[in-house]
Specification:
Elements lengths: L3 E10 L2 E11 L4 E5 L6 H8 L5 E7 L2 E2 L5 H6 L2 E4 L11 H8 L7 H11 L16 H13 L5 E5 L7 H18 L2 E5 L3 H7 L2 E6 L2 E7 H6 L1 H8 L3
Parallel strand pairs: 3-8, 3-9, 6-7, 7-8
Antiparallel strand pairs: 1-2, 1-4, 4-5, 9-10
Helix pairs in contact: 3-5
The protein binds adenosine-5'-triphosphate.
Length: about 240
């Protein structure tokens, strides 16, 4: 079971509270989009879910409390975070980056690498190349591939479209959808590009100044007048 249940989550940095009483549920195998303006706390939310910032309240994955555990323990429990800026190790090769993604275990690595190449065939001819020599789109695919090496139950994606050409971004979201469907991975995606995010997500939440101000199915959120004005650029 990989249902994510976030209840009354408060989080922040030192004395500065960023998230206030954030509550939402992502069903097992669902994709959930988090929308909102710059500085709303979207990145902080993902960091709280992966143990990188401390939080208070409840974050349960498959009924098990995640809050209070360090990031490496959460990684072992199947929480994979692809941060904004991707977090790939530029001087290392593509293959080394992928193998690093499986640092929580030793078995089945070759099989998992094959699985990654099926999702991202463009990476296969580049295995021995330094990650730094890849295009932006390939680096984002590598970051996603590295996260998949963890065999995640919960995949956290921060602004995957950042800096990528529209065509590359669409391809990336198509792959995220395929992964979600084939592996039943629960996904939380933070995205400035609301069109794209609402195209793949079943449900979405709008975060403003650290609070969820609107929640609904992707279709409901798309129809919301204010969201349309603020994030979709029409009406
Ligand atoms: P963006 O789309 O610009 O990344 P966001 O919605 O992801 O925005 P956050 O990055 O979570 O927002 O930032 C929320 C608030 O937390 C902002 O006011 C920001 O200045 C603050 N903040 C972010 N990171 C830190 C940090 N490491 N230390 C202190 N404050 C931080």
């Amino acid at each position: 079971m990989s249902e994510l249940v976030v209840t009354g989550l408060d989080a922040g940095y030192g004395g500065a509270q960023v998230l206030h009483d954030v509550t939402f549920t992502v069903g097992e195998g669902e994709i959930c989009a988090i929308l909102g303006p710059n500085g709303a706390g979207k990145t902080t939310l993902l960091r709280a879910l992966s143990g990188m910032v401390k939080g208070r309240g409840g974050v349960r994955l498959g009924g098990v409390e995640l809050l209070g555990r360090p990031p490496d323990a959460l990684a072992r429990m199947g929480v994979a975070h692809v941060p904004e800026g991707r977090g790939t190790f530029m001087p290392l090769t593509v293959e080394e980056n992928l193998r690093l993604g499986a640092y929580t275990r030793r078995d089945g690595l070759e099989q998992d690498l094959d699985r990654i190449y099926t999702y991202f065939p463009a990476l296969k001819p580049r295995l021995k190349q330094a990650a730094g020599s890849l295009s932006g789109g390939e680096q984002q695919m590598l970051a996603l591939g590295r996260a998949l090496m963890l065999r995640p139950r919960l995949l956290l994606l921060d602004e995957p479209s950042l800096g990528l050409a529209p065509l590359v971004t669409r391809e990336l979201f198509r792959i995220v959808r395929t992964i979600n469907e084939q592996e039943r991975t629960t996904v939380v995606v933070v995205e400035q590009n609301a069109h794209l995010a609402l195209g793949v997500a079943q449900r979405a939440h709008v975060l403003e100044t650290g609070r969820i101000v609107l929640s609904g199915t992707a279709a409901q959120i798309r129809q919301d007048e204010q969201v349309a004005q603020s994030y979709l650029g029409y009406r």
